[in-house]
Amino acid sequence: MPHVLAVDWDQDQARFVLGTISGRRVRVRALGSRDLVTDEANPGAADEAFAGWIKEVLKKHSVTRCRLLVGLPRSSVEMLYLTLPPATDAELPELVANQAMQESATITEDTILDFVAASGAATEPRRVTVAALPPSELQRVQRRCSAAGLKPQRAVLRPLASITLFRRLVSGSKQACLVVDRVGREVDLNIVAQGRLMLARTVRLPADIAGEDLADRLLAEIQRTILAAPRDQMGDEPIKRVYLIGGLADYEALIEQLDLLESLTTEVLDPFSLTGVAETRVPPDRGRFAPLLGMLLDEVVHSHPVDFLHPHRPVKPIPPWRVAAAVVGVVAVLALGLTFYVWGQLAEVNQVNQDLRQRLRDLNTTSRKAVEQKNRIEAIAAWKSRDVNWLDELRDLSQQFPGARDAAVLRMTMRPAQSRGGMVDLQGLVRDPNIVATIEGKVRDPFRSVRSRRIQQRALEEDYAWSFETSISVTPRRPEQYPGVPPAVPAESANETVSTQSTPQIDKPLSDEATP
User: Fold this and answer.
1) DSSP letter, residue 378
2) What was the pLDDT predicted at 499?
3) Which of 67, 335, 370, 503 sits at 20 to 30 Å (Cα–Cα) from 443?
């Protein structure tokens, strides 16, 4: 919870209230006062004493950071009560500044002005309460706070802070009344009507005044303030009620004298009734802390009637050069934003292009591998298309070849051809040369061509008297294009099937005569 420190002072005494704000609630953690001794030989002694005291308070309560609110007494400012022409709230600061300089010779362009305007329509005259603070007074306040290592966030008017507390203590009252609050040797007398401050007076009391003399002086000032009430703003409504802020014991003698006046009704308001502070912690002369408590309550809603650090200021026209600078700045920002956008888009496009190039390289590598694989597959397919099913071919040749009584195969060579298909070279023996022609006729078909290169007669041979050499050109065909397997032959004739066997060495020379 944020800590808030409210302080105010006069020539003799400084006061503080330390609280915390949680939502819309204020909790008072500590409060106190200290006498200030003014030394004309050392003007900064009071500032040093105040700074040391505040540092001790913050250290005692383990507060390292806090918001500082400073209350300024009525004697530090000049109050004006103005009636302005009809104007909107935005036009009031300029009207107030012009009218204030015309009303008071002490107000200059450097004077800090803030005001409270009565609620009303912009088409009706506006009534405002103006507070004027010299810059030197604000600098003095800031210098005293700087000595304590603090920087004020608010510089408010003490009588208005008391009125804030009064409105919360007596809510909804619109009748004219006088609010009296004694703060040390100063007494604030504020006339309130229609919910706003109509007149603020501060009276400084003698140092040794007390008892009946104090009551007589306060009664005289009360009557004087009532007589000075601005009737032009209040109308004919008389002031019938006096509110005394503080404790009953603080105004006991004054209350007795006021009770003798039939025209006035008196009521005492306890400023600590809204804070929940235990009675044992409330110091004597409790009314002097009323402005500080009002400042804390205003800080809850961040709304102070008058704040010299954040005053209402007239809206100054924007110079043309600032308009031009703003336009140039907007254009520059748009151009810079467009540049960054285009740069970002180009960077994204470059990244996409880089990814696509990498993907293209990967696809090219994959494509080359696929082409190589395809070439291998096509080569294998081409090789297989040229290849002959030699087992089927051998089976078919065996079926077409004559029996073992007529022919015998000495050597058979099977090899693929250079282009397509294959070649079968046969060397064998036959009983009669006509058997070679029979072999050629049986073997020759649309897939095979036969050519016998040489047929020779063998000398001194009676069974296989002739030898031959035949070449068969084979064209590849599918397995289903081969003739079916013939029926099984009887067992006794199985030994007569043609088989590839080694022929014994022939010693007799072959005849040179060839039979066609």
Assistant:
1) H
2) 39
3) 503
Confidence of residue 356 (pLDDT cuts 50, 70, 90): very high
Ranges of each domain in the chain: 3-300, 390-496
CATH class belonging to 3-300: alpha beta
Q: What is the pLDDT of residues 75-126, one digit of tens each?
A: 899 999 888 999 888 889 999 999 999 999 999 999 999 999 887 788 888 8
CATH architecture of 390-496: 2-Layer Sandwich (3.30)
Task: Give CA separation, 441 vs 153, 390, 446, 448, 477, in Å.
Answer: 127, 20, 12, 11, 19
- pLDDT tens digits, 33-84: 998 877 666 767 888 889 999 999 999 999 989 999 999 998 899 999 888 9
Q: Tell me which residue has tokens 């022609």.
A: 437
442 vs 396: CA distance, rounded Å: 10
Instruction: Tell me which DSSP letter residue 494 carries.
Output: G
| Rama region for 509: left / alpha / beta (φ>0; ψ in -120 to 50; rest) | beta
Strand intervals (E) in 356-501: 407-416, 422-430, 448-457, 466-474
Contact indicator for 243, 177 with CB cutoff of 8 Å: yes
Cα Dmax for the chain: 183
